[in-house]
Protein backbone atom coordinates (compact mmCIF):
# COMPACT_ATOMS: atom_id res chain seq x y z
CA UNK A 1 0.00 0.00 0.00
CA UNK A 2 2.79 2.35 0.86
CA UNK A 3 4.87 1.70 -2.22
CA UNK A 4 3.00 3.70 -4.85
CA UNK A 5 2.68 6.66 -2.49
CA UNK A 6 6.39 6.49 -1.84
CA UNK A 7 7.34 6.39 -5.47
CA UNK A 8 4.96 9.25 -6.27
CA UNK A 9 6.65 11.31 -3.58
CA UNK A 10 10.05 10.36 -4.97
CA UNK A 11 9.01 11.44 -8.46
CA UNK A 12 7.69 14.75 -7.17
CA UNK A 13 11.00 15.20 -5.30
CA UNK A 14 13.01 14.37 -8.40
CA UNK A 15 10.96 16.74 -10.54
CA UNK A 16 11.48 19.50 -8.01
CA UNK A 17 15.20 18.69 -7.94
CA UNK A 18 15.43 18.86 -11.72
CA UNK A 19 13.59 22.20 -11.65
CA UNK A 20 15.98 23.49 -8.97
CA UNK A 21 18.98 22.32 -10.99
CA UNK A 22 17.73 24.11 -14.09
CA UNK A 23 17.18 27.23 -11.99
CA UNK A 24 20.73 27.01 -10.61
CA UNK A 25 22.15 26.45 -14.11
CA UNK A 26 20.26 29.51 -15.38
CA UNK A 27 21.75 31.60 -12.60
CA UNK A 28 25.20 30.28 -13.39
CA UNK A 29 24.64 31.25 -17.01
CA UNK A 30 23.92 34.82 -15.92
CA UNK A 31 27.50 34.92 -14.58
CA UNK A 32 28.97 33.17 -17.61
CA UNK A 33 27.17 35.22 -20.27
CA UNK A 34 29.43 38.31 -20.10
CA UNK A 35 32.15 35.98 -21.48
CA UNK A 36 29.94 34.96 -24.42
CA UNK A 37 32.59 35.84 -27.03
CA UNK A 38 35.23 33.63 -25.46
CA UNK A 39 32.71 30.88 -24.91
CA UNK A 40 31.89 30.91 -28.63
CA UNK A 41 35.63 30.59 -29.36
CA UNK A 42 35.81 27.64 -26.94
CA UNK A 43 32.80 25.96 -28.58
CA UNK A 44 34.37 26.48 -32.03
CA UNK A 45 37.57 24.79 -30.84
CA UNK A 46 35.57 21.98 -29.27
CA UNK A 47 33.72 21.41 -32.58
CA UNK A 48 37.02 21.35 -34.49
CA UNK A 49 38.67 18.94 -32.05
CA UNK A 50 35.61 16.66 -31.94
CA UNK A 51 35.57 16.47 -35.77
CA UNK A 52 39.30 15.77 -35.84
CA UNK A 53 39.00 13.03 -33.24
CA UNK A 54 36.27 11.39 -35.37
CA UNK A 55 38.27 11.83 -38.55
CA UNK A 56 41.36 10.02 -37.22
CA UNK A 57 39.84 6.51 -36.87
CA UNK A 58 37.93 6.92 -40.12
CA UNK A 59 41.16 7.61 -42.03
CA UNK A 60 42.83 4.62 -40.31
CA UNK A 61 39.94 2.33 -41.34
CA UNK A 62 40.02 3.58 -44.92
CA UNK A 63 43.82 3.15 -45.03
CA UNK A 64 43.51 -0.48 -43.87
CA UNK A 65 40.98 -1.28 -46.58
CA UNK A 66 42.70 0.74 -49.33
CA UNK A 67 46.38 0.03 -48.66
CA UNK A 68 47.05 -2.68 -46.05
CA UNK A 69 44.47 -5.29 -47.13
CA UNK A 70 45.38 -4.69 -50.81
CA UNK A 71 49.13 -4.46 -49.97
CA UNK A 72 49.46 -1.18 -51.93
CA UNK A 73 52.12 1.21 -50.70
CA UNK A 74 51.49 4.15 -53.06
CA UNK A 75 49.73 6.86 -51.11
CA UNK A 76 50.31 5.01 -47.80
CA UNK A 77 52.83 7.63 -46.66
CA UNK A 78 50.42 10.35 -47.66
CA UNK A 79 47.85 8.82 -45.31
CA UNK A 80 50.43 8.68 -42.51
CA UNK A 81 51.23 12.37 -43.11
CA UNK A 82 47.51 13.16 -43.11
CA UNK A 83 47.12 11.33 -39.79
CA UNK A 84 50.06 13.27 -38.34
CA UNK A 85 48.43 16.52 -39.42
CA UNK A 86 45.05 15.49 -37.94
CA UNK A 87 46.52 14.55 -34.57
CA UNK A 88 48.81 17.63 -34.41
CA UNK A 89 45.83 19.90 -35.15
CA UNK A 90 43.84 18.02 -32.54
CA UNK A 91 46.50 18.81 -29.93
CA UNK A 92 46.50 22.51 -30.83
CA UNK A 93 42.70 22.78 -30.76
CA UNK A 94 42.37 20.94 -27.45
CA UNK A 95 45.07 23.15 -25.94
CA UNK A 96 43.29 26.31 -27.10
CA UNK A 97 39.89 25.13 -25.93
CA UNK A 98 41.08 24.46 -22.40
CA UNK A 99 43.24 27.60 -22.26
CA UNK A 100 40.30 29.82 -23.23
CA UNK A 101 37.88 27.93 -21.03
CA UNK A 102 40.12 28.34 -17.98
CA UNK A 103 40.19 32.06 -18.73
CA UNK A 104 36.38 32.18 -18.90
CA UNK A 105 36.09 30.07 -15.73
CA UNK A 106 38.48 32.16 -13.69
CA UNK A 107 36.85 35.44 -14.75
CA UNK A 108 33.42 34.06 -13.90
CA UNK A 109 34.50 32.73 -10.52
CA UNK A 110 36.19 36.05 -9.82
CA UNK A 111 32.89 37.83 -10.48
CA UNK A 112 30.89 35.41 -8.29
CA UNK A 113 33.41 35.63 -5.45
CA UNK A 114 33.46 39.42 -5.69
CA UNK A 115 29.66 39.66 -5.71
CA UNK A 116 29.35 37.21 -2.83
CA UNK A 117 31.84 39.13 -0.73
CA UNK A 118 30.07 42.40 -1.48
CA UNK A 119 26.74 40.79 -0.67
CA UNK A 120 28.05 39.67 2.71
CA UNK A 121 28.59 43.33 3.54
CA UNK A 122 25.05 44.21 2.60
CA UNK A 123 23.47 41.61 4.86
CA UNK A 124 21.97 42.66 8.15
CA UNK A 125 23.76 41.95 11.43
CA UNK A 126 20.96 39.50 12.32
CA UNK A 127 22.20 37.24 9.49
CA UNK A 128 25.65 36.92 11.09
CA UNK A 129 24.16 36.55 14.57
CA UNK A 130 22.52 33.31 13.47
CA UNK A 131 25.40 31.67 11.61
CA UNK A 132 28.80 30.21 12.26
CA UNK A 133 31.67 32.13 10.69
CA UNK A 134 33.42 28.99 9.45
CA UNK A 135 30.29 27.71 7.72
CA UNK A 136 29.99 31.01 5.86
CA UNK A 137 33.69 30.94 5.00
CA UNK A 138 33.22 27.45 3.61
CA UNK A 139 30.73 28.84 1.11
CA UNK A 140 33.07 31.55 -0.10
CA UNK A 141 36.05 29.16 -0.33
CA UNK A 142 35.11 25.45 -0.75
CA UNK A 143 31.86 25.87 -2.62
CA UNK A 144 33.25 28.47 -4.99
CA UNK A 145 36.37 26.36 -5.57
CA UNK A 146 34.12 23.46 -6.43
CA UNK A 147 32.33 25.58 -9.01
CA UNK A 148 35.64 26.81 -10.37
CA UNK A 149 36.90 23.28 -11.03
CA UNK A 150 33.68 22.38 -12.76
CA UNK A 151 33.84 25.40 -15.02
CA UNK A 152 37.45 24.60 -15.87
CA UNK A 153 36.71 21.16 -17.23
CA UNK A 154 33.03 20.26 -17.30
CA UNK A 155 31.77 22.68 -19.92
CA UNK A 156 34.34 21.51 -22.47
CA UNK A 157 33.85 17.86 -21.61
CA UNK A 158 30.08 18.06 -21.88
CA UNK A 159 30.10 19.81 -25.27
CA UNK A 160 32.91 17.70 -26.69
CA UNK A 161 31.40 14.46 -25.46
CA UNK A 162 27.98 15.32 -26.87
CA UNK A 163 29.46 16.27 -30.24
CA UNK A 164 31.65 13.18 -30.37
CA UNK A 165 28.65 11.00 -29.53
CA UNK A 166 26.42 12.49 -32.20
CA UNK A 167 29.25 12.50 -34.78
CA UNK A 168 30.22 8.90 -34.05
CA UNK A 169 26.61 7.71 -34.36
CA UNK A 170 26.19 9.50 -37.72
CA UNK A 171 29.37 8.03 -39.21
CA UNK A 172 28.55 4.57 -37.81
CA UNK A 173 25.05 4.67 -39.32
CA UNK A 174 26.51 5.66 -42.65
CA UNK A 175 29.06 2.80 -42.57
CA UNK A 176 26.80 0.00 -41.30
CA UNK A 177 23.33 0.46 -39.76
CA UNK A 178 23.33 -3.14 -38.50
CA UNK A 179 26.62 -2.85 -36.65
CA UNK A 180 25.49 0.55 -35.31
CA UNK A 181 22.41 -1.13 -33.87
CA UNK A 182 24.65 -3.76 -32.21
CA UNK A 183 26.92 -1.07 -30.78
CA UNK A 184 23.97 0.89 -29.42
CA UNK A 185 22.53 -2.17 -27.64
CA UNK A 186 24.39 -1.19 -24.47
CA UNK A 187 22.88 2.32 -24.32
CA UNK A 188 19.62 1.39 -22.50
CA UNK A 189 21.72 -0.47 -19.92
CA UNK A 190 23.87 2.63 -19.51
CA UNK A 191 20.80 4.82 -19.05
CA UNK A 192 19.25 2.57 -16.40
CA UNK A 193 22.54 2.20 -14.52
CA UNK A 194 23.28 5.91 -14.63
CA UNK A 195 19.83 6.88 -13.40
CA UNK A 196 20.09 4.48 -10.52
CA UNK A 197 23.46 5.90 -9.51
CA UNK A 198 22.81 9.61 -9.98
CA UNK A 199 19.53 9.43 -8.07
CA UNK A 200 21.64 8.41 -5.11
CA UNK A 201 24.73 10.57 -5.62
CA UNK A 202 23.20 14.03 -5.69
CA UNK A 203 21.62 13.68 -2.25
CA UNK A 204 24.93 12.42 -0.88
CA UNK A 205 26.98 15.21 -2.47
CA UNK A 206 24.69 17.82 -0.99
CA UNK A 207 24.98 16.14 2.38
CA UNK A 208 28.77 16.06 2.01
CA UNK A 209 28.96 19.81 1.28
CA UNK A 210 26.66 20.54 4.21
CA UNK A 211 28.75 18.42 6.59
CA UNK A 212 31.93 20.06 5.32
CA UNK A 213 30.49 23.53 5.97
CA UNK A 214 29.39 22.49 9.45
CA UNK A 215 32.78 21.04 10.25
CA UNK A 216 34.57 24.16 9.01
CA UNK A 217 32.34 26.23 11.27
CA UNK A 218 33.24 24.04 14.21
CA UNK A 219 36.99 24.15 13.48
CA UNK A 220 36.89 27.93 13.16
CA UNK A 221 35.02 28.22 16.46
CA UNK A 222 37.41 25.91 18.31
CA UNK A 223 40.56 27.51 16.94
CA UNK A 224 39.42 31.04 17.79
CA UNK A 225 38.19 29.90 21.21
CA UNK A 226 41.23 27.74 21.90
CA UNK A 227 42.12 29.65 25.07
CA UNK A 228 38.65 29.11 26.55
CA UNK A 229 38.78 25.43 25.58
CA UNK A 230 42.04 25.04 27.47
CA UNK A 231 40.96 27.18 30.44
CA UNK A 232 37.94 25.00 31.00
CA UNK A 233 39.83 21.81 30.18
CA UNK A 234 37.28 21.02 27.45
CA UNK A 235 39.76 19.39 25.07
CA UNK A 236 38.23 15.93 25.43
CA UNK A 237 34.68 17.17 24.79
CA UNK A 238 35.80 19.23 21.79
CA UNK A 239 37.73 16.30 20.34
CA UNK A 240 34.72 14.03 20.83
CA UNK A 241 32.44 16.54 19.15
CA UNK A 242 34.91 16.84 16.28
CA UNK A 243 35.05 13.07 16.07
CA UNK A 244 31.26 12.97 15.66
CA UNK A 245 31.29 15.64 12.98
CA UNK A 246 34.22 14.01 11.22
CA UNK A 247 32.41 10.68 11.31
CA UNK A 248 29.28 12.20 9.74
CA UNK A 249 31.42 13.82 7.05
CA UNK A 250 33.23 10.54 6.46
CA UNK A 251 29.93 8.70 6.07
CA UNK A 252 28.54 11.34 3.71
CA UNK A 253 31.81 11.39 1.73
CA UNK A 254 32.01 7.59 1.69
CA UNK A 255 28.56 7.12 0.18
CA UNK A 256 28.91 10.04 -2.23
CA UNK A 257 32.22 8.67 -3.51
CA UNK A 258 31.13 5.03 -3.44
CA UNK A 259 28.03 5.62 -5.54
CA UNK A 260 29.85 7.90 -7.93
CA UNK A 261 32.68 5.36 -8.11
CA UNK A 262 30.22 2.85 -9.60
CA UNK A 263 29.96 4.95 -12.73
CA UNK A 264 33.39 4.24 -14.30
CA UNK A 265 33.09 0.55 -13.33
CA UNK A 266 29.70 0.26 -15.00
CA UNK A 267 30.95 2.11 -18.05
CA UNK A 268 34.02 -0.06 -18.29
CA UNK A 269 31.93 -3.21 -18.19
CA UNK A 270 29.52 -1.94 -20.84
CA UNK A 271 32.44 -0.73 -22.93
CA UNK A 272 33.95 -4.21 -22.98
CA UNK A 273 30.56 -5.71 -23.68
CA UNK A 274 30.02 -3.51 -26.73
CA UNK A 275 33.58 -4.22 -27.90
CA UNK A 276 32.90 -7.96 -27.73
CA UNK A 277 29.60 -7.55 -29.58
CA UNK A 278 31.28 -5.56 -32.38
CA UNK A 279 34.08 -8.11 -32.68
CA UNK A 280 31.61 -11.05 -32.75
CA UNK A 281 28.89 -9.60 -35.01
CA UNK A 282 31.43 -7.61 -37.10
CA UNK A 283 33.52 -10.76 -37.62
CA UNK A 284 30.47 -12.70 -38.90
CA UNK A 285 29.47 -9.83 -41.22
CA UNK A 286 33.05 -9.58 -42.55
CA UNK A 287 33.19 -13.34 -43.19
CA UNK A 288 29.96 -13.03 -45.13
CA UNK A 289 31.56 -10.18 -47.08
CA UNK A 290 28.98 -7.66 -45.91
CA UNK A 291 31.55 -5.27 -44.41
CA UNK A 292 35.30 -4.76 -44.68
CA UNK A 293 37.98 -5.26 -41.98
CA UNK A 294 38.58 -1.48 -42.06
CA UNK A 295 34.93 -0.86 -41.07
CA UNK A 296 35.28 -3.23 -38.06
CA UNK A 297 38.40 -1.28 -36.99
CA UNK A 298 36.52 2.03 -37.37
CA UNK A 299 33.61 0.64 -35.33
CA UNK A 300 35.86 -0.76 -32.62
CA UNK A 301 37.59 2.62 -32.37
CA UNK A 302 34.26 4.50 -32.44
CA UNK A 303 32.80 2.16 -29.86
CA UNK A 304 35.62 3.26 -27.61
CA UNK A 305 35.10 6.87 -28.67
CA UNK A 306 31.44 6.31 -28.11
CA UNK A 307 31.58 4.91 -24.60
CA UNK A 308 34.39 7.28 -23.56
CA UNK A 309 32.26 10.40 -24.04
CA UNK A 310 29.38 8.64 -22.31
CA UNK A 311 31.79 7.74 -19.54
CA UNK A 312 33.07 11.32 -19.46
CA UNK A 313 29.54 12.67 -19.46
CA UNK A 314 28.71 10.42 -16.53
CA UNK A 315 31.82 11.50 -14.62
CA UNK A 316 31.20 15.12 -15.44
CA UNK A 317 27.64 14.68 -14.34
CA UNK A 318 28.92 13.85 -10.88
CA UNK A 319 31.23 16.84 -10.82
CA UNK A 320 28.38 18.95 -12.08
CA UNK A 321 26.05 17.68 -9.35
CA UNK A 322 28.60 18.42 -6.68
CA UNK A 323 29.22 21.89 -8.15
CA UNK A 324 25.48 22.51 -8.39
CA UNK A 325 25.19 21.65 -4.70
CA UNK A 326 27.95 24.23 -4.03
CA UNK A 327 26.34 26.79 -6.33
CA UNK A 328 23.00 26.33 -4.57
CA UNK A 329 24.68 27.16 -1.27
CA UNK A 330 26.31 30.25 -2.76
CA UNK A 331 23.07 31.43 -4.35
CA UNK A 332 21.29 30.84 -1.06
CA UNK A 333 23.42 33.69 0.33
CA UNK A 334 22.58 35.89 -2.68
CA UNK A 335 18.91 35.26 -1.91
CA UNK A 336 19.21 36.40 1.69
CA UNK A 337 17.49 39.70 2.19
CA UNK A 338 19.93 42.58 2.30
CA UNK A 339 20.04 45.03 5.14
CA UNK A 340 17.07 47.25 4.43
CA UNK A 341 17.86 49.92 1.90
CA UNK A 342 17.99 53.45 3.23
CA UNK A 343 14.55 55.05 2.93
CA UNK A 344 14.01 57.05 -0.24
CA UNK A 345 14.93 60.60 0.48
CA UNK A 346 17.12 59.56 3.44
CA UNK A 347 19.55 62.32 4.32
CA UNK A 348 23.29 62.45 4.95
CA UNK A 349 24.41 64.55 7.85
CA UNK A 350 27.72 66.40 7.56
CA UNK A 351 27.74 67.22 11.21
CA UNK A 352 25.78 66.14 14.24
CA UNK A 353 25.68 67.65 17.68
CA UNK A 354 24.89 64.39 19.41
CA UNK A 355 21.36 64.81 20.79
CA UNK A 356 19.75 61.40 21.11
CA UNK A 357 16.12 60.61 21.89
CA UNK A 358 14.40 57.25 22.29
CA UNK A 359 10.65 57.61 21.99
CA UNK A 360 8.60 54.60 23.16
CA UNK A 361 10.95 52.16 21.47
CA UNK A 362 9.92 48.50 21.31
CA UNK A 363 12.12 45.85 19.72
CA UNK A 364 12.28 42.08 19.52
CA UNK A 365 14.97 39.96 17.83
CA UNK A 366 12.74 36.98 17.18
CA UNK A 367 9.48 38.89 16.89
CA UNK A 368 8.16 36.79 19.77
CA UNK A 369 9.68 38.16 22.93
CA UNK A 370 10.48 41.85 23.29
CA UNK A 371 14.12 42.60 24.18
CA UNK A 372 13.34 46.32 24.55
CA UNK A 373 9.98 47.32 25.95
CA UNK A 374 8.70 50.85 25.60
CA UNK A 375 12.00 52.63 26.25
CA UNK A 376 12.04 56.42 26.24
CA UNK A 377 14.85 58.77 27.23
CA UNK A 378 16.55 61.87 25.95
CA UNK A 379 20.27 62.66 26.01
CA UNK A 380 21.76 66.10 25.41
CA UNK A 381 24.90 66.64 23.32
CA UNK A 382 28.04 65.94 25.31
CA UNK A 383 26.22 64.01 28.01
CA UNK A 384 27.63 60.72 29.32
CA UNK A 385 25.06 58.04 29.94
CA UNK A 386 25.90 54.81 31.75
CA UNK A 387 23.73 51.80 31.05
CA UNK A 388 23.57 49.37 33.94
CA UNK A 389 21.45 46.35 34.64
CA UNK A 390 21.65 42.61 35.02
CA UNK A 391 22.68 40.38 32.16
CA UNK A 392 20.11 40.22 29.36
CA UNK A 393 18.54 43.50 30.50
CA UNK A 394 18.85 45.02 27.01
CA UNK A 395 21.92 47.28 27.32
CA UNK A 396 23.65 46.04 24.16
CA UNK A 397 20.36 46.03 22.27
CA UNK A 398 19.83 49.74 22.98
CA UNK A 399 23.26 50.50 21.49
CA UNK A 400 22.61 48.24 18.48
CA UNK A 401 19.38 50.15 17.83
CA UNK A 402 21.20 53.44 18.16
CA UNK A 403 23.72 52.38 15.49
CA UNK A 404 20.84 51.06 13.31
CA UNK A 405 22.15 47.51 13.24
CA UNK A 406 18.49 46.87 13.91
CA UNK A 407 15.50 49.21 13.66
CA UNK A 408 12.77 49.48 16.33
CA UNK A 409 9.58 47.51 15.77
CA UNK A 410 7.62 50.38 17.25
CA UNK A 411 8.56 53.88 18.41
CA UNK A 412 11.29 56.17 17.11
CA UNK A 413 14.89 57.12 17.70
CA UNK A 414 15.80 60.73 16.98
CA UNK A 415 19.33 61.98 16.36
CA UNK A 416 19.59 65.77 16.51
CA UNK A 417 15.83 65.80 15.98
CA UNK A 418 15.92 63.61 12.82
CA UNK A 419 14.19 60.25 12.92
CA UNK A 420 17.11 57.82 12.63
CA UNK A 421 15.26 55.96 9.83
CA UNK A 422 15.47 59.13 7.73
CA UNK A 423 19.27 59.23 8.03
CA UNK A 424 21.44 57.11 5.77
CA UNK A 425 22.98 54.29 7.81
CA UNK A 426 26.51 54.97 6.58
CA UNK A 427 26.17 58.66 7.36
CA UNK A 428 24.85 57.93 10.86
CA UNK A 429 27.61 55.43 11.64
CA UNK A 430 30.24 57.85 10.31
CA UNK A 431 29.45 60.07 13.29
CA UNK A 432 29.77 57.24 15.78
CA UNK A 433 32.72 55.30 17.11
CA UNK A 434 32.73 52.09 19.06
CA UNK A 435 35.15 50.84 21.68
CA UNK A 436 33.98 47.35 22.45
CA UNK A 437 35.01 44.71 24.99
CA UNK A 438 36.76 42.52 22.49
CA UNK A 439 38.75 44.89 20.36
CA UNK A 440 39.04 43.53 16.86
CA UNK A 441 42.34 44.29 15.19
CA UNK A 442 43.07 43.40 11.59
CA UNK A 443 46.18 41.84 10.16
CA UNK A 444 48.27 44.86 9.18
CA UNK A 445 50.39 47.62 10.68
CA UNK A 446 49.50 49.44 13.87
CA UNK A 447 49.21 52.61 11.81
CA UNK A 448 46.62 51.04 9.49
CA UNK A 449 44.67 49.66 12.42
CA UNK A 450 44.38 53.08 14.00
CA UNK A 451 43.59 54.63 10.63
CA UNK A 452 40.62 52.28 10.30
CA UNK A 453 38.70 54.97 12.23
CA UNK A 454 39.30 57.48 9.42
CA UNK A 455 40.83 56.11 6.26
CA UNK A 456 42.18 59.44 5.02
CA UNK A 457 43.87 60.39 8.32
CA UNK A 458 47.44 61.62 7.89
CA UNK A 459 50.38 60.01 9.74
CA UNK A 460 50.42 63.03 12.05
CA UNK A 461 46.74 62.59 12.90
CA UNK A 462 47.31 58.90 13.63
CA UNK A 463 50.23 59.65 15.94
CA UNK A 464 48.39 62.49 17.66
CA UNK A 465 45.45 60.16 18.36
CA UNK A 466 47.82 57.48 19.67
CA UNK A 467 49.46 60.01 22.00
CA UNK A 468 46.05 61.11 23.32
CA UNK A 469 45.12 57.48 23.77
CA UNK A 470 48.27 56.78 25.81
CA UNK A 471 49.29 54.26 23.15
CA UNK A 472 52.25 56.14 21.67
CA UNK A 473 54.85 55.08 24.25
CA UNK A 474 54.17 51.34 23.94
CA UNK A 475 53.99 51.60 20.13
CA UNK A 476 57.41 53.27 20.03
CA UNK A 477 58.87 50.41 22.04
CA UNK A 478 57.78 47.88 19.38
CA UNK A 479 60.51 46.88 16.89
CA UNK A 480 59.01 48.80 13.96
CA UNK A 481 56.98 51.38 15.85
CA UNK A 482 53.83 52.34 13.97
CA UNK A 483 54.84 50.05 11.11
CA UNK A 484 54.85 46.95 13.29
CA UNK A 485 52.64 44.37 11.62
CA UNK A 486 50.03 42.88 13.91
CA UNK A 487 49.11 39.27 13.44
CA UNK A 488 45.48 38.46 12.77
CA UNK A 489 43.19 39.78 15.50
CA UNK A 490 46.02 41.62 17.23
CA UNK A 491 48.03 38.60 18.29
CA UNK A 492 51.37 39.74 19.72
CA UNK A 493 50.20 42.61 21.92
CA UNK A 494 48.52 42.58 25.32
CA UNK A 495 44.83 42.95 26.11
CA UNK A 496 45.38 46.40 27.60
CA UNK A 497 47.42 47.55 24.60
CA UNK A 498 44.67 46.37 22.28
CA UNK A 499 42.23 48.55 24.19
CA UNK A 500 44.53 51.55 23.94
CA UNK A 501 44.68 51.01 20.16
CA UNK A 502 40.90 50.79 20.03
CA UNK A 503 40.70 54.11 21.87
CA UNK A 504 43.20 55.66 19.43
CA UNK A 505 41.13 54.34 16.54
CA UNK A 506 38.00 55.97 17.97
CA UNK A 507 39.96 59.14 18.68
CA UNK A 508 41.08 59.47 15.05
CA UNK A 509 37.46 59.04 13.93
CA UNK A 510 36.52 62.07 16.03
CA UNK A 511 32.89 60.98 16.48
CA UNK A 512 30.02 63.00 17.95
CA UNK A 513 28.56 59.90 19.55
CA UNK A 514 30.71 57.39 21.33
CA UNK A 515 29.63 53.90 22.23
CA UNK A 516 31.66 52.11 24.85
CA UNK A 517 31.33 48.63 26.15
CA UNK A 518 33.75 48.55 29.02
CA UNK A 519 36.02 45.55 29.20
CA UNK A 520 35.66 43.49 32.33
CA UNK A 521 38.91 41.57 31.96
CA UNK A 522 41.56 42.08 34.57
CA UNK A 523 44.25 44.44 33.42
CA UNK A 524 47.22 45.56 35.55
CA UNK A 525 46.70 48.77 37.51
CA UNK A 526 49.13 50.91 35.50
CA UNK A 527 47.53 50.00 32.15
CA UNK A 528 44.09 50.34 33.71
CA UNK A 529 44.95 53.90 34.74
CA UNK A 530 46.23 54.65 31.25
CA UNK A 531 43.02 53.31 29.73
CA UNK A 532 40.91 55.29 32.16
CA UNK A 533 42.78 58.50 31.39
CA UNK A 534 42.60 57.88 27.63
CA UNK A 535 38.88 57.19 27.85
CA UNK A 536 38.26 60.38 29.78
CA UNK A 537 40.03 62.35 27.03
CA UNK A 538 38.10 60.50 24.34
CA UNK A 539 34.73 61.05 26.00
CA UNK A 540 35.19 64.75 26.59
CA UNK A 541 32.72 66.88 24.61
CA UNK A 542 30.97 63.89 23.01
CA UNK A 543 27.69 62.17 23.67
CA UNK A 544 28.70 58.90 25.29
CA UNK A 545 26.84 55.71 25.94
CA UNK A 546 28.72 53.35 28.19
CA UNK A 547 27.82 49.84 29.19
CA UNK A 548 29.56 50.40 32.45
CA UNK A 549 31.28 47.88 34.65
CA UNK A 550 33.71 50.15 36.48
CA UNK A 551 32.30 51.95 39.48
CA UNK A 552 34.40 54.96 38.57
CA UNK A 553 32.71 55.32 35.15
CA UNK A 554 29.29 54.91 36.67
CA UNK A 555 29.92 57.50 39.37
CA UNK A 556 31.25 60.00 36.82
CA UNK A 557 28.37 59.54 34.36
CA UNK A 558 25.98 62.46 33.98
CA UNK A 559 23.12 60.02 34.08
CA UNK A 560 22.61 56.35 34.77
CA UNK A 561 19.89 54.40 32.98
CA UNK A 562 18.99 51.33 35.02
CA UNK A 563 17.58 48.58 32.83
CA UNK A 564 15.81 45.39 33.74
CA UNK A 565 14.01 42.99 31.40
CA UNK A 566 14.12 45.45 28.52
CA UNK A 567 12.71 48.41 30.47
CA UNK A 568 14.23 51.50 32.01
CA UNK A 569 13.20 51.12 35.61
CA UNK A 570 15.20 53.97 37.12
CA UNK A 571 17.34 56.86 35.96
CA UNK A 572 19.38 59.60 37.62
CA UNK A 573 22.83 60.27 38.97
CA UNK A 574 24.71 57.80 41.14
CA UNK A 575 23.87 59.77 44.29
CA UNK A 576 20.21 60.32 43.51
CA UNK A 577 19.73 56.65 42.68
CA UNK A 578 21.38 55.55 45.89
CA UNK A 579 19.15 57.89 47.81
CA UNK A 580 16.06 56.41 46.16
CA UNK A 581 17.05 53.01 47.62
CA UNK A 582 15.52 51.14 44.68
CA UNK A 583 16.82 48.56 42.20
CA UNK A 584 20.08 50.43 41.62
CA UNK A 585 20.71 50.62 45.36
CA UNK A 586 20.49 46.80 45.56
CA UNK A 587 22.52 46.33 42.42
CA UNK A 588 25.19 48.65 43.77
CA UNK A 589 25.44 46.98 47.16
CA UNK A 590 25.18 43.41 45.97
CA UNK A 591 27.00 43.50 42.71
CA UNK A 592 28.77 46.61 41.48
CA UNK A 593 30.62 47.34 44.71
CA UNK A 594 31.77 43.72 45.10
CA UNK A 595 32.93 43.60 41.49
CA UNK A 596 35.00 46.71 42.05
CA UNK A 597 36.55 45.34 45.22
CA UNK A 598 37.49 42.08 43.56
N1 LIG B 1 21.10 38.26 18.34
C1 LIG B 1 20.11 37.98 19.19
N2 LIG B 1 19.09 37.18 18.81
C2 LIG B 1 18.08 36.89 19.65
N3 LIG B 1 18.00 37.36 20.92
C3 LIG B 1 18.98 38.16 21.36
C4 LIG B 1 20.09 38.50 20.52
N4 LIG B 1 20.93 39.30 21.23
C5 LIG B 1 20.34 39.46 22.45
N5 LIG B 1 19.20 38.77 22.52
C6 LIG B 1 18.28 38.74 23.68
O1 LIG B 1 17.83 40.05 23.94
C7 LIG B 1 17.82 40.31 25.33
C8 LIG B 1 18.69 41.53 25.65
O2 LIG B 1 20.02 41.20 25.34
P1 LIG B 1 21.23 42.23 25.46
O3 LIG B 1 22.40 41.61 24.80
O4 LIG B 1 20.78 43.55 24.97
O5 LIG B 1 21.44 42.27 27.03
P2 LIG B 1 22.59 42.98 27.87
O6 LIG B 1 21.92 43.77 28.91
O7 LIG B 1 23.53 43.69 26.96
O8 LIG B 1 23.29 41.71 28.51
P3 LIG B 1 24.83 41.51 28.91
O9 LIG B 1 25.13 42.40 30.05
O10 LIG B 1 24.85 40.09 29.33
O11 LIG B 1 25.64 41.77 27.69
C9 LIG B 1 18.29 39.04 26.00
O12 LIG B 1 17.15 38.34 26.44
C10 LIG B 1 19.00 38.29 24.93
O13 LIG B 1 18.86 36.91 25.12
Automatic annotation (TrEMBL):
Xref: SMART domains: AAA (SM00382)
Annotated compartments: Cell membrane
Membrane topology: Multi-pass membrane protein
Residues annotated as domain ABC transporter: 356-590
GO CC annotation terms, alphabetical: plasma membrane
Keyword tags: ATP-binding, Cell membrane, Membrane, Nucleotide-binding, Transmembrane, Transmembrane helix, Transport
Any one GO molecular function term: ATP hydrolysis activity
PANTHER family reported for this sequence: ATP-BINDING CASSETTE SUB-FAMILY B MEMBER 10, MITOCHONDRIAL, ATP-DEPENDENT PERMEASE MDL1, MITOCHONDRIAL
Protein known as: ATP-binding cassette, subfamily B
The organism of origin for this protein: Parageobacillus thermantarcticus
Organism phylogeny: Bacteria, Bacillati, Bacillota, Bacilli, Bacillales
